Amino acid sequence: MSVDKNNISRRDFFKGMAMGALGGGFLAMGVYSYSPWRKAFFSDTQRKMVDIGVCKSVKITNISETSWFSNADLMGDIKGAGGLLVDQYSYNWPPFGNGDGLGKGGYQKGIEKIKHLLPNNLEEAWAITEKLSVHPENAGGFACLVEMEELNGKKHKYLLDSGWSYKWMDECFKREGIDEMLKNREIEALFISHEHFDHYWGIPVTFKYDPTITIYIPDTFYDEGLQYLKDSGHKGEVIKVKAGLKPIASGMATFVFDIPIICRVYGEQSMYFNVKDLGLVSVTGCCHQSIIQFAETAYREIQYENDELYGIYGGLHISPFEDWDPKYDDLVISLGQYDFKKIGCNHCTGILCAKKFVEAGYPVVEGTARFRSKDKVYLGNGDKIGFGIDV
Q1: Phi, psi at residue 296, to the nearest 5°?
Q2: Which DSSP string do the residues of 306-324 spell out, in sequence order?
Q3: Which residues are CB-neighbours of 166 under 8 A, at least 6 positions away?
Q4: What is the DSSP string of 40-58?
């Protein structure tokens, strides 16, 4: 169920936040995801059982899960710039650094420094923004390759997100062969989960190799985010996905969650796959909607094999800053009721949380801790996970 925008529009929400609207504050900070209030977003109606078709298999390659390299630097910058409710474009992070210092940034002043270099001269653009930005070395990014095969043998490749740092993401794309896949037009579309810096600001790296790629974004992007597509040299179709379920291919659909998120971002798009003989596989970039709402939405909306919520992959966003709170233990316990058969998480879930999943006996797929990923307890950079297929 979406937020009733007759009562609270996304812009009114943030305006209210600036005025100290306490209830809205809890929503924007994500506290609702771990509290009984989140149930206000669940539907009380009977299951819709929408048929999205069935696919044969899904494979995910973790191109980069390292959104940033230092929690302390990231949180220090956010706090110094005014907090979690401040517009992310004002932080003065790359690639929009303007040289004015922390909390004094803006999209227009930042992009004008590098716009003429996008998307083909990314090394030069990054060299410029490194000198003008706060903590450019901390920028990483999230992106994964999603490969899905239909029952008739037809195969699809999609990107979920395009990271943050031009330098880091270009390195990761080349490491996993994404650059060549894009050049050869093997990747059908890029799905952006949400407008956050670590998932979206590296989008010129995708356009460097395929500026014509089709893009699916939540229809809640702000003006700066939409302008960035144009300024980055995109020449393909942009599909704005409204809140709710959108079928993409046989056995695949996305769902846009109509929720407020920190850093003046609104709405998150995630993926669902109905895998033959297994059940539903849920794939997320960050899961600000909470893994419970993610699972509840699937149960409410979709018809899937064996009525089984089989697997989940992505940033499950429980303790990404390793700031464990006792209420998170309740969430870990609650996850058990869904009886997932395979769980793939990354650092955005939180290393402490991933370890608690393992301690609880959940079927967490171990990683390799390569390419600057920090721990084997989660799927790191270059790691893969398969559903209905061996990897």
Answers
A1: -65, -40
A2: GG-EEEEEE---S-TT---
A3: 95, 122, 123, 125, 126, 202, 204, 205
A4: GGS--SPP--EE---EEEE
Q: Output the six-digit token pair for 110.
A: 């930042």
Answer for the pair 281, 310: CB distance below 8 angstroms, yes or no: yes
| Range 50-383: architecture per CATH | 4-Layer Sandwich (3.60)
* Cα 348 from Cα 242, distance rounded (Å): 25
In the chain, where are the structural domains located? 10-41, 50-383
Span 204-263, pLDDT tens digits: 999 999 999 999 999 999 999 999 999 999 999 999 999 999 999 999 999 999 999 999
Report DSSP state, residue 190.
E
Burial class (CB in 10 A: 0-12, 13-18, 19+), 104: middle
Cβ count within 10 A of residue 326: 6
Per DSSP (E only), the strands in the chain are 50-51, 55-64, 143-150, 155-160, 189-191, 214-218, 238-241, 244-249, 252-261, 265-275, 279-284, 302-303, 309-314, 342-345, 384-387
Q: Measured at the alpha carbon of residue 71, what is the angle toward residues 65 and 73, in degrees to the nearest 5?
A: 120
Q: How far apart are CA 238 and CA 261, in angstroms?
A: 22
User: pTM for the full model?
Assistant: 0.89
Contact 32, 347 (CB under 8 A): no
